[in-house]
Structures are given as C-alpha cells and as structure tokens.
Amino acid sequence: MAARYIEIKNSIQKDILSHRYQVGEKIPSERELAAQYGVTRVTLQKAMHVLEQEGFIERIHGKGMFVTKVIEDNVYMLNNGTGDSILGFSREFGQQAKISSRLVTHQIIPAPQTVASQLELDAQQDVHFIRRIRFIDDVPVLVEDSWINSDVIATIPQAVLEQRSLYQYIEEVTGKKIKFYNSVIEGDLFNDELAALLSISPGLPMLKVSGVTKLEDGKAFNFSCSYNRADKFKIKNSWVGK
Amino acid sequence: MAARYIEIKNSIQKDILSHRYQVGEKIPSERELAAQYGVTRVTLQKAMHVLEQEGFIERIHGKGMFVTKVIEDNVYMLNNGTGDSILGFSREFGQQAKISSRLVTHQIIPAPQTVASQLELDAQQDVHFIRRIRFIDDVPVLVEDSWINSDVIATIPQAVLEQRSLYQYIEEVTGKKIKFYNSVIEGDLFNDELAALLSISPGLPMLKVSGVTKLEDGKAFNFSCSYNRADKFKIKNSWVGK
DNA sequence: TAGTGGTCTAGACCACCTG
DNA sequence: AGGTGGTCTAGACCACTAG
User: Fold this and answer.
1) Key word DNA-binding present in the record (chains A, B) (predicted)?
2) Cut 0.85: pTM above it
3) Which fold has domain B76-235?
4) Strand partners for A80
C-alpha cells in the first residue's frame, strides 16, 4: 500500500502522459485537486512537488500549475543518472524500444579498495563482480559494472542477470526497498577494452555514471558504474533550483 | 525574509560543514530539533528533506538521521548541472580556488530557432549572445554560451560579465528570483574551436550542460550551454530515489 | 478583490528499529 | 516498550497574480 500522495502523483502523471491535461496548459488548482482526491492541501502539495521535481509540471506562485513543455529528442534519456541504467531507460515516445542484456562476467572476488570503501565494508571481503552489456534494439549501447555485497545477496541466478532488473530481484529477496545515493556523472573516452565490447571505435565520447545503492535500512549493497555511448544518451537533470 | 525551513536548513547545514555534527554520526531527532528551533515537526521535516536531497544527510526510518560520508575528490564538482557553472562551483575543501572569467563575445542577435523555442519567444526576436571562458586558478576549464531574452534585460554592463554572477545581476534588476529547469547533460569531444579557446587539444572529452533559466513568475529568460573539460569536472547528482 | 501557490501550526496515527 | 522517521488532517495566514 503506497502512500496516498504517491498514488495521487501517479494518477496525475498518468493524466499528463495521456494528454488529458494539455502541454503548457493549466491544471486544476491545489484546492480543487485536493477536494477531488479527498485529501488536504498539504498531502496534495507533496504529490505536486514530486511531479515538479520530476519535470512534469511547473508551479508558479499566484498563477497556478502548468504542464511542462516536453522537449522531443531522438536520443535516450538516462533519467536521473542512477546506476542501474536499465531502470532509467525511457523514450519520449513510449517504451517500444527493445531492451536486452548480455552477461559478460559474473564472479565472486575480494572487494577492491575503492569498492570496499563505497560499500562500507572491509577490504578483501567477498563481493559479486558483474559486467553486463545493454542493447537497445539489438545495438550495444553501454557496459555496466556492478559490485554487490555478498552479505546481502549470497547467490544471484544467472537468469536474473540476463533478464530485466537485478534491483527488482534484490527487493524481492530482501523484502526491502532500495534507494540511490551519491550518483556521479563523468565524461571520458572509450578505451580499447570497453570499445571492443560495444563494437565501436576507441576514443569515442562516453558518459560514465557511478553510484551507490542502499537498502531502505541504510545498508549499502551495490556500487555500480556504467559506461554509456555519449551519442546515444543524454541525462536529464530533474532539478528545480533556487 | 526567507522561509523558516530554509533558515533551519542553512543552520543545520552550517553545523554539518563545521563538523559540529560528525561525519557518519547521528544528528538529533526530528522532535528534538523541532523543539530546539521552536517549530512543528512538519516544518523541520521540510528542512531535513532539502538537506537529504542535497546529499548532506541520510534519513533512515526507525533509526534516525545521519551525516553523509563525503567522498573526497581532486576534481571540481558541478553541483547540479545547472547552466551557470560558476554558481555551481564548489570544492570539497573550501572555496580557496581563484575563479575568473574572460568575455569572448557579447552581441545582440536574432534568436536562432532552437534558442527561440527554448525561451518560448518568436524566432528572429533579439537576444543577447554571450560567450565566456571560465578559469580556475588561472587555468581555462570551460566555455559557457548564454542566450538571454532582451525583453527581460535590455542592457548588460560589461563589468557584470567579467565579474562573478550574471544571475545575481538579473535578480537585482528584475527584483525576482530565478529558477532552473530542464537541465540536460551530454558527453562529447572538444572540437577545434572550443579547444582553441581553452588551449587544449581537440578530441579531449567534454561534459556539456545545457538548460533554461526562468524567473519565479515562469518567464524564461536564459538558455545556456557550457562546455566543461571532463578531466576537471564531475557532476554530482543530488538525488535520492525510489 | 478573488484566486492561486507558499508556509506553518498542533495535533494524530502508522511503520520501522532497537533493546 | 520506547524512540525514530513517514504520513495525514483541518485548519490558518501570507505573498503573489490577475482583472
């Protein structure tokens, strides 16, 4: 049972995506929507603030709330620069793109120092190391490395790694939700090794996204790093500032 | 007069930065802090949610709130990928870096189509076009292009462009606060023109950040695009997900 | 002046964690 | 059991925008 404000947020988001609320135009006022959904203004505002953060609406003091004009684009968006790129995939025109994965390697190794520090565990402690290639419409577009604390997940079925979402599996096994933290975006060039995995030329530009994933109880369980073809991806920074 | 929750957020942020609250350790509970500041829990929570968004603390249900372990780094952070890089500059170890600018060009031109669309004005309408180079410790690290609606600001003194913050000037002149929207991050390689401006080799990796800036009344007044040396910058994605 | 979003109060109940 | 964050109510007043 999700929180009421999340339900409301999803409901209004659906209304926006289905063009029930027209692009650029005003949506009903907080007081109206609060009455419609049978909640107080405070609760409704929480929903609307999330929608604003995620870039669906703009709130203008004294005027009202407006559906954000969405900019069309022919590249893919990594929605929030979170590690698990596959979760962030979205296309302005629906999800008809075919997404697939290939597992390059999966082994248990002693945690490298940088990984151990990120996962807040002792060096040399065992972690899963997983390298996967992601395809969109059968074109390889990114390499993703993950280091996962083996205390949290002892074994990972190969089927999970070949299919959709490792995170969903971890949520199921642990019974806890996940949170992303400290995501960092860098630019670089593809080296020979990564370029070979994607069948592209070394020296092409890359967007590198790394970050830590934690369980809702604060336990860090995953450090991931993805190497994305910069000609295929942009990152939308969902942020409203000042 | 800022909102109370913003004052409280700044106060606690200061306590974190001054290490009054130790890294990784628990800070007082919501109820305690609310009592200290003489506000209700709801108000205090607003402050803490902002601190969480900005990466200063982690909130863990049932346990408490903890100061985030900050990862040291020897590159600069573009805090939120907002257009005006100079505002986003921050170094983990204080602000002792020397920041300067050089104005390359400032002219009034008819708005190119993409700019007009972003600024929601008619094509061919006049805009300022400004290109500046930013230096850190006298090393050129980025080029920033800005297109500014001349309806909002008719004239811009050269001194403003050579000094610190154009945005601060605009806030003063218009008497309105500014908001950032729709910031997008891309990776690319420096071409000959941009590389020459920074005295680097073409083909080096770049982080490109573009976005629209609006006044608080919703009026779009600035489209900016910055080209950042990827060996000098990372972008911290202040986001807490799920 | 009427309508809008922005902030804030003083409670309440729930879900989660630890001892 | 006691403390923690997560959510929600039913009001209230303020600041801003419009006609």
Assistant:
1) yes
2) yes
3) Chorismate lyase (3.40.1410)
4) none
